[in-house]
Design goal:
GDP-mannose pyrophosphatase, elongated, Nucleoside Triphosphate Pyrophosphohydrolase, 21% helix, NUDIX_hydrolase_dom, hydrolase, alpha+beta, three-stranded antiparallel beta sheet, seven-stranded mixed beta sheet, hydrolase activity
C-alpha cells in the first residue's frame, strides 16, 4: 500500500490538473508521484445495422497534438465537469462530434484511462438506432472528419495499426464480450 504524505497542484488548465504527491511506500521508502487529474469522459461505440445485416461503425479522425498525427477513434470526450450523468455525456459527445443522435444507448461499463499516471473514468456506451443530425464541434475539433467503416474494415484498421487509440480498442473488446453474453 502507498500512503500520501502531502500533495500540491503544479499545473492547471481548463482540461487538466497535475499534482505532485510525496508518498510513502509499504517498505517505508519515500518518493514522488505525479498524477494527472481529469474529469470523467466517455467513448461511444456507434453501431449501425443495415437491413441486410451488415454492420457499420462510426468513427472520427482528427489530429492528435501529443503524438503529432491524424488518427481514427470512436467518438469520445468530456465536458470538463466533475459531476456528469454518463449517458447525457455520451449522447452529447456523439452528437457534438458526428451529428448522430442515438435512439438507444447502453452503458457497457467504464475503464480508467492510463491509470498509471491519470485518474480519469471513461464510460463506454453502445449507441444504436442512429439518426443523422447536425454536429456541434468544439474549436479543438475543427479538423475532425467523420468516418463510417464496416466492422471488417474497422477490425482490419485495429489490426494493421491504422487505429492506434487504446481506448477505442478497449471499448471494442468490451462491446464484443458484452455482445457474446447477450445470446
Amino acid at each position: 500500500m502507498i500512503k500520501t504524505i502531502s500533495s500540491r497542484e503544479v499545473y492547471r488548465n481548463k482540461w487538466t490538473r497535475v499534482r505532485e504527491d510525496v508518498i510513502e511506500r509499504s517498505n517505508g521508502e519515500r518518493g514522488i508521484f505525479g498524477v494527472v487529474d481529469k474529469d470523467p469522459a466517455c467513448i461511444v461505440v456507434a453501431l449501425e445495422r443495415e437491413a441486410d445485416g451488415t454492420e457499420y461503425l462510426w468513427l472520427v479522425e482528427q489530429f492528435r497534438y501529443t503524438v503529432g498525427g491524424r488518427y481514427m477513434e470512436f467518438p469520445q470526450g468530456g465536458w470538463e465537469q466533475e459531476e456528469v450523468v454518463p449517458e447525457d455525456l455520451a449522447r452529447g459527445e456523439l452528437r457534438e462530434e458526428t451529428g448522430l443522435v442515438a435512439g438507444k444507448m447502453t452503458l457497457l461499463g467504464f475503464h480508467w484511462i492510463a491509470y498509471g499516471v491519470m485518474n480519469q473514468k471513461h464510460y463506454v456506451f453502445l449507441a444504436e438506432e442512429l439518426v443523422q443530425g447536425e454536429h456541434d464541434r468544439d474549436a479543438e475539433e475543427t479538423d475532425l472528419e467523420v468516418k463510417r467503416l464496416s466492422v471488417r474494415e474497422f477490425e482490419d484498421a485495429l489490426f494493421d495499426g491504422t487505429i492506434r487509440d487504446n481506448c477505442t480498442a478497449a471499448a471494442w473488446a468490451l462491446y464484443k464480450i458484452w455482445r457474446e453474453r447477450q445470446v
